[in-house]
């Protein structure tokens, strides 16, 4: 098991290296110079040129990339062009917001999607099932930025139940923080919850036709026990896979959600940094998001072993 | 009835005796009128927190390093400048009590005594020398502003001399902004790279905290040198990028003051009795700028044809909803030297056609205009496209992202572009930077030896009336050559809740909130 995890971690390195090189190249292929943008297009050419030299932007691209790699080796992701702040610090300040948002969304997905899928499977073709199907269809198809604006319109501006936007750290005002996070979390969770509830329904229906379920029922077990102990456990394995893999996608979606709701998280930081051509910050964020994605898929593999005793890593 | 009476009296007083320096600078006060100007004390009422909605979050709070316009709003509260600038662009003493030109290249500043930085250290001549040196060497936007300052000599603890490379009359105006802001040398040393997040000045409010994209808070500085100022205990700046949301927040009471209002929302605000609306015109204009180094616009007659073909009044009414001021040249309505009668172009299709014939394109021509995707620039371009169509001029609009836009400008890889200038209090900054052949912001490639001469001369004479005459002369020649098609000066507008008093919008973009107070 340990060898398996270590092996997987080592195999990550080339992936991250290629990814960082590609990001590096793409960011620099986008027309537009970070220093010119920083000066709002009104910089004195002499000062702009001097700043480019100071920041090392005048060096050949390959050399810039190697310098970046060398510093990365020492745990240094570089500094922000506009504020001279350490990139690690910039990202660390924003990370809690995104982590909270993602955690709340995953919690919502589990709380909403699991029961919905189970009920839909048990009461197949009933009005509940039809309603659940329609709801998931909406959840899958509605773009998250549109859903976000819709929720703000209805719950914040019309009904005044929740504040429209803003952010307060959880530790400073927990209740206010949650009030502000509900709508973004719902927005972010909607698409995933829809997919998961459909998968739960489908998976459960399939398992329920298996022979061991028939056996369990014929032993006279209560239906609730059949569902919980025999059917659900088996149906959950593929769902755990999807949920794990979707965490990466979820982080990607925070870009839109955070922008709509004005949350100071890494998603919004990524967008702002791309427009400002903050190369080092974009580079750091892509690396972080990629790591989260790869690590979550590793976690999924490990979870297989937990959920299914037949799987082991030899 | 008594309220109406007060309103009537105030209105009569304003109309009868108020003599605003120019009509564009008059402040429009709407909503419930009360005589809050009657009191002479700086703060009729002390205390409270003001929540200010701003367009964009701050980026870098170090006035020597930052290049972002939004940052200036925080500096205006945390810092003082050597020379002060009133809302109507008059130069007044601030950290320097007086100044004297010993010669064209030697300026002596006598500094105010007893001024403390917010970290408790003293403001003095050494601090001035430290700051100017830092601004000149840190590689930020002040480098070019202060390029003419050779060195600073400390004559005694409260007297400094600026030694200039050559006579430079815009110096005092330059010292009213970032270049004149004084940071605590001790704080700069203490915070190092993090000074951009911990600004320490001598201003009326001291920096408390900044949560990126959420809020920035400043508190009243107890040892501020101006007696009885500031009025507020705390200001909380909240970035709200969406203007519609910002206005909604103001109406709902979640904000007390907002830093801009979209032109389309102004008439609704004027009707809203619970809010106050303030407007003056900006120092910066918007224009269509031509690349004069390449065809088709290396041809002066074709530039003029377009200048005669565009109806600025329609743009002013349709897109700015009558806010702001129509522009005819680079001298801004709030600057000394502005001439409201100066109007070399208006829409005249016969003139435009004559110019097309003169330029060798009697039946029109085609060109591409690049447009950055912000403000109302795309909409303005659409209107101009319509207006030029009857002349056979086909204008192709090419929207571009900001980084690419700047690149096209700097490499002169464009034919025409929807541009403009952010504006400077001193005339030099509105003319020389853009229209002198060697100007740092000259993106059109325009260079007229006569204009260059006049602008150079205006830089070294100190007599204001002579300078104005020279700048007006340059303005006339620039209009004739038409490297830029001046369209409008944007409105500088603010809106506030009724209890917010003492708001004074400045055409130099940013508010100073030290005398703003809350009536309840």
Secondary-structure topology with pairs:
The complex is a heterodimer of chains A (314) and B (520).
Chain A: H1 2-29, H2 34-38, H3 45-54, H4 61-73, H5 87-122, H6 127-141, H7 144-158, H8 174-208, H9 211-218, H10 223-261, H11 266-275, H12 279-307
Helix pairs in contact in A: 1-12, 5-6, 5-8, 5-10, 5-12, 6-8, 7-8, 7-10, 8-10, 9-10, 10-11, 10-12, 11-12
Chain B: H1 2-17, E1 49-54, H2 71-78, E2 83-85, E3 91-93, E4 96-103, E5 106-111, H3 125-137, H4 142-145, E6 149-156, E7 159-164, H5 171-174, H6 185-191, E8 205-211, E9 215-220, E10 234-239, H7 243-252, E11 257-258, H8 263-271, E12 275-290, H9 300-309, H10 312-318, E13 325-326, H11 349-358, E14 366-372, H12 377-388, E15 394-400, H13 402-410, E16 416-420, H14 427-435, H15 449-460, H16 464-481, E17 484-497, E18 500-501, E19 517-518
What does this structure look like?
The complex is a heterodimer of chains A (314) and B (520). Chain A is an all-alpha fold and 314 residues long. Chain A is built from twelve helices and no strands. In chain A, helix 9 packs across helix 10. The termini of chain A are close together. With 520 residues, chain B is of the alpha+beta class. Helices cover 30% and strands 22% of the residues of chain B. Chain B has 16 helices and 19 strands. In chain B, the strands form four sheets. In chain B, strands 1, 8, 9, 10, 11, 12, 13, 14, 15, 16 and 17 form an eleven-stranded mixed sheet that branches. Chain B has a four-stranded antiparallel sheet with strand order 4-5-7-6, covered by helices on one side. In chain B, a hairpin with a 5-residue loop joins strand 2 and strand 3. The longest helix of chain B has 18 residues. At the A-B interface, helix 2 and helix 3 of A face helix 7 and helix 13 of B.
């Amino acid at each position: 098991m340990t060898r398996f995890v270590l092996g997987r971690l080592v195999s990550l390195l080339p992936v991250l290296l290629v990814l960082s090189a590609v990001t590096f190249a793409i960011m620099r292929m986008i027309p537009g110079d970070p220093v010119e943008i920083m000066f709002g297009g009104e910089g004195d050419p002499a000062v702009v040129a001097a700043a480019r030299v100071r920041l090392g932007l005048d060096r050949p691209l390959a050399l810039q990339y190697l310098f970046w790699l060398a510093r990365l080796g020492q745990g240094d992701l570089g500094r922000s062009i506009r504020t001279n702040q350490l990139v690690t610090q910039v990202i660390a300040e924003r990370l809690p917001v995104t982590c909270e948002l993602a955690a709340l969304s995953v919690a919502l997905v589990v709380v909403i999607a699991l029961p919905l899928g189970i009920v839909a499977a048990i009461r197949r073709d009933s009005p509940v099932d039809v309603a659940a199907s329609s709801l998931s269809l909406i959840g899958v198809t509605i773009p998250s930025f549109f859903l976000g604006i819709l929720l703000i319109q209805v719950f914040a501006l019309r009904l005044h139940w929740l504040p429209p936007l803003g952010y307060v750290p959880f530790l400073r005002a927990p209740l206010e923080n949650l009030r502000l996070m509900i709508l973004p979390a719902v927005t972010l969770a909607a698409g995933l919850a829809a997919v998961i509830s459909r998968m739960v329904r489908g998976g459960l229906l399939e398992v329920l036709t298996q022979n061991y379920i028939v056996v369990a029922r014929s032993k006279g077990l209560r239906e609730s026990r059949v569902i919980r102990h025999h059917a659900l456990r088996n149906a959950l394995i593929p769902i755990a896979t999807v949920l794990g893999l979707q965490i990466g996608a979820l982080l990607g979606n925070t870009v839109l959600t955070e922008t709509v709701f004005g949350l100071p998280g890494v998603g919004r930081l990524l967008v702002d940094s791309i427009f400002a051509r903050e190369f080092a910050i974009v580079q750091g964020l892509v690396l972080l998001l990629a790591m989260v994605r790869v690590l979550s898929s590793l976690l999924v593999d490990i979870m297989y072993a937990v959920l299914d005793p037949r799987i082991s890593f030899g | 009835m008594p309220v109406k009476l007060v309103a009537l009296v105030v209105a009569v007083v304003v109309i009868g005796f108020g003599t605003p320096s120019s009509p564009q600078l008059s402040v429009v006060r709407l909503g419930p009128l009360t005589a809050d100007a009657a009191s002479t004390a700086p703060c009729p009422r002390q205390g409270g927190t003001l929540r200010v909605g701003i367009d964009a979050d701050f980026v870098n709070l170090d006035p020597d390093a930052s290049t972002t316009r939004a940052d200036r709003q925080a500096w205006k509260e945390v810092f003082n400048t050597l020379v002060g600038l009133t809302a109507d662009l008059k130069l007044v003493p601030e950290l320097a009590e007086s100044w004297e030109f010993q010669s064209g290249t030697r300026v002596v500043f006598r500094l105010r005594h007893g001024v403390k930085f917010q970290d408790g250290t003293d403001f003095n001549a050494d601090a001035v020398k430290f700051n100017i040196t830092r601004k000149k060497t840190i590689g930020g936007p002040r480098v070019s502003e202060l390029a003419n300052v050779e060195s600073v000599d400390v004559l005694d603890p409260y007297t400094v001399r600026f030694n200039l490379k050559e006579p430079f009359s815009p110096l005092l105006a330059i010292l009213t902004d970032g270049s004149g802001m004084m940071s605590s040398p001790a704080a700069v040393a203490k915070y190092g790279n993090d000074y951009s997040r911990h600004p320490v000045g001598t201003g009326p409010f001291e920096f408390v905290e900044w949560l990126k994209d959420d809020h920035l808070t400043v508190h009243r500085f107890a040892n501020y040198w101006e007696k009885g100022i500031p009025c507020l205990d705390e200001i909380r700046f909240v970035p709200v990028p969406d203007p519609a949301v910002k206005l909604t927040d103001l109406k709902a009471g979640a904000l007390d003051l907002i830093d801009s209002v979209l032109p389309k929302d102004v008439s609704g605000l004027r009707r809203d009795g619970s809010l106050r609306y303030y407007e003056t015109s900006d120092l910066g204009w918007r224009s269509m700028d031509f690349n004069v180094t390449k065809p088709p616009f290396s041809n002066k007659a074709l530039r003029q044809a377009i200048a005669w073909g565009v109806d600025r009044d329609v743009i002013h009414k349709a897109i700015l909803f009558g806010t702001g001021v129509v522009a005819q040249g680079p001298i801004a309505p709030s600057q000394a030297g502005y001439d409201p009668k100066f109007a070399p172009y208006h829409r005249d299709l016969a003139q435009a056609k004559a110019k097309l014939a003169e330029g060798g394109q009697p039946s029109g021509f085609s060109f591409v205009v690049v447009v950055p995707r912000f403000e109302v620039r795309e909409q303005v371009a659409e209107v101009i496209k319509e207006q030029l169509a009857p002349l056979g001029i086909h204008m192709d609009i090419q929207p571009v992202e900001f980084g690419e836009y700047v690149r096209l400008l700097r490499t002169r890889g464009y034919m025409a572009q929807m541009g403009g200038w952010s504006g400077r209090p001193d005339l030099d900054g509105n003319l020389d930077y853009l229209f002198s052949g060697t100007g740092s912001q000259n993106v059109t490639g325009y260079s007229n030896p006569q204009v260059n001469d006049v602008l150079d001369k205006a830089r070294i004479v100190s007599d204001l009336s002579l300078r104005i005459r020279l700048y007006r002369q340059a303005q006339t020649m620039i209009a004739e050559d038409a490297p830029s098609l001046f369209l409008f000066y944007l409105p500088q507008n603010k809106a506030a809740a009724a209890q917010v008093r003492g708001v004074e919008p400045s055409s130099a973009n940013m508010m100073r909130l030290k005398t703003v107070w809350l009536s309840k």
